[in-house]
Amino acid sequence: STNVASKAAAPTQNMRLMLTVNPMNALRHIEKLKTATITNDLYQGIPCYKISATDDRFGFVVWVNKTNSAVCHQIILQDSNILLETDFEYKKWNGFLVPSHTMIAKPSNGTRVDQEFSGHAY
């Protein structure tokens, strides 16, 4: 089980949209788009694959750590403006990487949700 402590400085309606951010869904969506590209990049000094694509109005950009295949960062664009931006942090637990902190931001209105994960158990 995972205990989650969330802090938000935003109204409930903004939190609903922001908590739907899921990097696996974004990667599955990117895979289906003809505009998908993969390039080498750095995210905060970490060598990553930058995976990106666009569809009608939205853009998806995901940075995946080359060493451990963990998603470090994700941006969802709407009409070329950042709609949502997410940072992912992990820790080693029983030999596996598990989420330890996620920060989701909506720059257009300054909304930010921080999720701290603790109490990882089988």
Brief summary of the model shown:
The chain has about 120 residues and is mainly β.
Q: Could you describe the 3D structure shown?
A:
- The chain is mainly beta and 122 residues long.
- 14% of the residues lie in helices and 57% in strands.
- The protein is built from 2 helices and 8 strands, in the order E-H-H-E-E-E-E-E-E-E.
- It has helices spanning 12-18, 23-32; strands at 3-8, 37-43, 46-54, 58-65, 71-78, 81-93, 96-106, 111-118.
- The protein has an 8-stranded antiparallel beta sheet with strand order 1-8-7-6-5-4-3-2, covered by helices on one side.
- The longest helix is centred in the N-terminal third of the chain and has 10 residues, at 23-32.
Question: Notable features of this structure?
Answer:
122 residues, mainly beta, eight-stranded antiparallel beta sheet, 2 helices
Runs with pLDDT <50, length 5+?
1-19
Structural class by secondary-structure content: mainly beta
Strand portion: over 45%
Q: What gap, in angstroms, lies between the N and C termini?
A: 6 Å
Topology:
Layout lengths: L2 E6 L3 H7 L4 H10 L4 E7 L2 E9 L3 E8 L5 E8 L2 E13 L2 E11 L4 E8 L4
